[in-house]
Specification:
Strand content: 5-15%
Shape: flat
Structural class: alpha+beta
Oligomer: single chain
Strand order of the largest sheet: 1-5-3-8-7
C-alpha cells in the first residue's frame, strides 16, 4: 500500500460522517448483548427491576426519541453548513464535517438507538433485562449531555471571530508542525547542472501533501535529488511535469513509486499548507466587506487572527526552506515553498483592496503592519515596509485630502475608537 493510499484513507476517515456512528451502532449492539448476558446472573435490587411491559414501553419510547434527536442533529448540521457557506467561506465547510464532537454525538445517539433495539428483542413475556434497562438510562443522559455541549458550541461557532480563531489555531499548528529543512542559505546545490528525468502526473487534482521522509529516503537510496515543479496547494493536470529526478538515472518504476508519495485531492488542505488557513480567513473578511454585507467590524476581527498567524510565521527563519537534506546534509528534495513576503501578501492585500474605503479596515491594517515591523525578523521587515507603502498609497487614493484622511492614516488595533494605546 502506497503512502498516498494511506493518506487518502486517513483523510476519508477524518471527513466521514458515517464511520464513527456506525462503530457506535456496533458498540451499542455488543453492549446490549453483554448487559443481557451479565444481567441473567445478577440479582437486581427491587427498585431497579422492571416488568416486561414497562421495559418494553421504555425502550420503545427511547427508540423514538433517539430517531427524533438524530434527525435534529443532522438538520442543525445542515443549517450550519449552509450558514458557513453563505456567510463565511465555502472552504470553512471542510472543518465543519471534521468536527470530532459532531461525530461523537452521532455515535452516542446511534449507539443508544441500536442498544435499545437490540435490548428490546431480549424482553420476554415474563422477564426483562433489568441491568440493560438501567444502563440505557445512562446512555440517554450521555447523549443528551453531548448534544447540549454540541449545540452550545455550534451557536458559538456561528460568530465570525470564532471561525477565524479556529482556523488560525489550525494554521499555526500546521506551520509549526511542518518538517523543518536542514539546508541553509549556503547549502551547495550541485545538482543544478545535472541531467534531469521528468516524472509526469497521471492524475488530476490539488497537491494536498507529500511524504517528505519517504522522498528523502528514496532520493538518498538512488543518489539523486528530486526537484518538484509544483508546491503543496498547486493544481496539476494529467501529463503535467510533477517533478524532476536529477543525478543518477532512476529505475523503471520510479514514476509510479514517486507519484505514490504525492497525495492529490479535489481541494487544498491545511495539513502541509498553512497558507490555506490564511486564505480561509481572508475569504471571510472579503465576504464581510462585500457590498451585500458591508460589515467592516467583522473584517477587523478577522485581522486580529491574521496578525496572530503572521506573527508566528514572521518570527521564523526562511533561509533554506523548501530544501530537504539527508542525514549527511546533501539536498535530496526541493519543494517550492512560500517565503515571508508571500504569506504577508496573502494576509493583507485583498483585505486592503476590498476595505480601502473603510476607515476601520485601513486603521487596523496599519496597526497590524506596525506590529509586524517591530516583531518579525530583521530580514523580513523590508516586505512589511513595502506593504505599509502600499497601504499609504491606497489611503491617499481613496481619501485624498478629504476630512477623514488624517484619521485614515492613524493606526488603531480596534479599527476605530481604540485610543492612543492602539498603535502597537
Amino acid at each position: 500500500m502506497s503512502w498516498t493510499t494511506r493518506f487518502r484513507r486517513r483523510q476519508s476517515v477524518r471527513q466521514s460522517l458515517w464511520l464513527v456512528p456506525l462503530l457506535g451502532a456496533l458498540a451499542g449492539i455488543l453492549l446490549a448483548w453483554g448487559a443481557a448476558e451479565v444481567g441473567e446472573d445478577l440479582d437486581m435490587p427491587a427498585a431497579l427491576t422492571f416488568t416486561p411491559s414497562t421495559a418494553s414501553s421504555l425502550l420503545s419510547a427511547i427508540l423514538g426519541a433517539m430517531i427524533g434527536l438524530i434527525g435534529f442533529v443532522v438538520t442543525v448540521t445542515v443549517l450550519l453548513v449552509q450558514t458557513s457557506t453563505s456567510q463565511f467561506s465555502a472552504r470553512y465547510m471542510r472543518l465543519v464535517y471534521r468536527d470530532p464532537l459532531l461525530k461523537a454525538v452521532l455515535a452516542v445517539l446511534v449507539g443508544t438507538f441500536a442498544y435499545s433495539f437490540a435490548l428490546l428483542r431480549r424482553v420476554g413475556e415474563t422477564e426483562s433485562p433489568d441491568l440493560g434497562v438501567v444502563l440505557v438510562s445512562g446512555l440517554v443522559l450521555l447523549g443528551i449531555l453531548l448534544f447540549l455541549i454540541f449545540f452550545s458550541r455550534l451557536l458559538q461557532r456561528l460568530r465570525p471571530a470564532a471561525v477565524a480563531a479556529s482556523v488560525s489555531e489550525i494554521g499555526v499548528t500546521a506551520f509549526l508542525g511542518l518538517v523543518q529543512p536542514t539546508a541553509t542559505a549556503s547549502t551547495s546545490l550541485e545538482w543544478h547542472s545535472a541531467a534531469a528525468h521528468i516524472v509526469e502526473s497521471t492524475r488530476t487534482g490539488t497537491i494536498q501533501a507529500v511524504s517528505l521522509d519517504g522522498l528523502v529516503g528514496w532520493a538518498q537510496q538512488h543518489a539523486c535529488t528530486l526537484v518538484f515543479r509544483h508546491g503543496v496547494g498547486d493544481f496539476v493536470h494529467p501529463q503535467a511535469p510533477l517533478l524532476e529526478v536529477r543525478g543518477s538515472a532512476p529505475p523503471r518504476d520510479a514514476a509510479r513509486t514517486l507519484e505514490g508519495m504525492v497525495a492529490l485531492g479535489k481541494e487544498r488542505t491545511i495539513e502541509q499548507d498553512p497558507a490555506f488557513a490564511i486564505r480561509v480567513m481572508v475569504d471571510v473578511a472579503n465576504r464581510a466587506l462585500s457590498a451585500a454585507i458591508n460589515d467592516p467590524t467583522t473584517a477587523v476581527q478577522v485581522l486580529d487572527y491574521v496578525e496572530d498567524v503572521l506573527l508566528v510565521v514572521g518570527r521564523n527563519d526562511f533561509s533554506g526552506r523548501g530544501i530537504f537534506c539527508d542525514s549527511g546534509g546533501m539536498p535530496r528534495v526541493v519543494l517550492p515553498s512560500r517565503g515571508w513576503a508571500d504569506y504577508l501578501e496573502l494576509g493583507v492585500t485583498e483585505i486592503r483592496q476590498y476595505g480601502a474605503s473603510s476607515i476601520q479596515v485601513v486603521r487596523r491594517l496599519r496597526a497590524l503592519l506596525l506590529r509586524l515591523q517591530d516583531a518579525v525578523r530583521p530580514e523580513h521587515r523590508a516586505a512589511v515596509d513595502e506593504e505599509l507603502a502600499r497601504l499609504e498609497a491606497t489611503v491617499r487614493e481613496r481619501f485624498g485630502e478629504g476630512v477623514d484622511s488624517e484619521r485614515a492614516m492613524a493606526p488603531d488595533k480596534q479599527g476605530i475608537g481604540g485610543g492612543g494605546h492602539a498603535g502597537r
